[in-house]
Amino acid sequence: MAGNSLRILCLHGYGQNADVFRESLGGFRRFVKHHANCSFLSAPHPLESDNNLEKAEGRAWWFKKDEKEEIVYRGFEESVLAIEKHVQSCGPFDGILGFSQGATMVGLLCGLQQQKKLNFDFKFAMLFAGFCSRSQAHQEIYKEQISLPSLHVFGETDKIIPVEQGEKLASFFLNPTILRHKGGHHVPSSGTQKDVYRDAYRQFLDAFASSPFSDWSSKHLKPSKL
């Protein structure tokens, strides 16, 4: 944490990029601006454009391939390296946030961190509309329960990622904070949801070992500030 502000690395969903996700996260960013600084990273893999400008600017953390009755996520390892490079050049970060495919990426990173297989780490995770990886190669990552403090958010009317998939991903975390909202495939930021975010931030801060976090929390996590 630097300058009395939590630093959060944000990973976008499939077909988005850093700029698109930053814009779509406007309501959430306004809510956390008093106590968090969000850094956005574009995935390293561009979508096939087919002369479509929107697709040409879209990115993915991996592409799902079916190979001999086995699901493979092509490009995952390259994405981990891209995130590591970003952390080295722009970090460190206190927490990591992901949406949709980005949330699945966050879940996998948390699992790798739990198994001490990452060259970087985070103190908390926020996963919006996430799901479990279907790649057989990734199932080992889910075998050890993840102790990292986490918040999991999913929409009851999400037509892309059903609630059950988000719940399954959350089950791999120890004592996860869960928020179900009435909306669809997006990051919500209404009044009642802000209360959950506020409580989650307090839990994240309480998990930090150094005392300055507690002093900072009492100043910056008051309802009037959020």
Automatic annotation (TrEMBL):
<dbReference type="GO" id="GO:0016787">
    <property type="term" value="F:hydrolase activity"/>
</dbReference>
<keyword id="KW-0378">Hydrolase</keyword>
<dbReference type="Pfam" id="PF03959">
    <property type="entry name" value="FSH1"/>
</dbReference>
<comment type="similarity">
    <text>Belongs to the LovG family.</text>
</comment>
<dbReference type="GO" id="GO:0005634">
    <property type="term" value="C:nucleus"/>
</dbReference>
<protein>
    <submittedName>
        <fullName>UPF0483 protein</fullName>
    </submittedName>
</protein>
<dbReference type="InterPro" id="IPR005645">
    <property type="entry name" value="FSH-like_dom"/>
</dbReference>
<dbReference type="InterPro" id="IPR050593">
    <property type="entry name" value="LovG"/>
</dbReference>
<dbReference type="GO" id="GO:0032526">
    <property type="term" value="P:response to retinoic acid"/>
</dbReference>
<dbReference type="GO" id="GO:0005737">
    <property type="term" value="C:cytoplasm"/>
</dbReference>
<feature type="domain" description="Serine hydrolase">
    <location>
        <begin position="4"/>
        <end position="195"/>
    </location>
</feature>
<dbReference type="InterPro" id="IPR029058">
    <property type="entry name" value="AB_hydrolase_fold"/>
</dbReference>
